[in-house]
What we know:
Layout: H1 2-16, H2 33-36, E1 38-45, E2 55-63, E3 69-77, E4 82-92, E5 100-106, E6 109-118, E7 125-129, E8 136-140, H3 147-159, E9 168-169
Antiparallel strand pairs: 1-2, 1-8, 1-9, 2-3, 3-4, 4-5, 5-6, 6-7, 7-8
Amino acid sequence: MRVRAAVVSLALLVLSGCTAAPKGVQPVGDFDAERFLGQWYEIARLDNRFERGLTRISATYTRRRDGGINVINRGFDPADGEWRETRGRAYFLGDPKVASLKVTFFWLFYGGYHVIALDRAGYQYALVCGPSRSHLWILAREPRLPQDTLRSLIKVAKDDGFNTEALIFADQDGSGAPR
C-alpha cells in the first residue's frame, strides 16, 4: 500500500511539473482573461506533432461555467481535405491575473500554457509557451501580423531562450505559403 501511495505521489509530482513555465520565463501579470477570450490565429510555432501538416490553424477560447476556459484548436489538413479539431479546457495555476494556466485535451494529463508577451492595449497579439522551451506559439487576432510586431515577438522569444530559428510560419490562407 505504501508503494502504491508513493507511486501515485510521484506520478502527481511529475504531472504537475508539466504545467509550470520554463525556468527563467515569466508569464504576463495584470492579465485579463475576459479580453483574451475569442478567436486567435496561429502566426508561427515551434513544431509539434499535434499541428504537423495543418494549415489555417486557430484557437478559440470561451469561458466555462466552472471558471475555467474552453479551448478549441482547429486546423485544416490539406492531405485529406478535412478540418481537424481538438477540444480541451484550461484552468489558472494560481492568481488569474497571472497568465499561467494548465490545459488538458486528454483527461488527467495537463500541460502548461503561459502567455509571456501580450499586446496589453488591445489584446491583438500574444506570445505563448508551454512547460518547456520546445513549445512556443505566436498568436494574433488577425491571420497576419505587421512585420515589426512579428520581429519584436521573435526577439522576446529568443531572449527567453527559445530556438526561434526553428519557428514554422503559418499558412493561414491554405495556399501553402506562410505569412
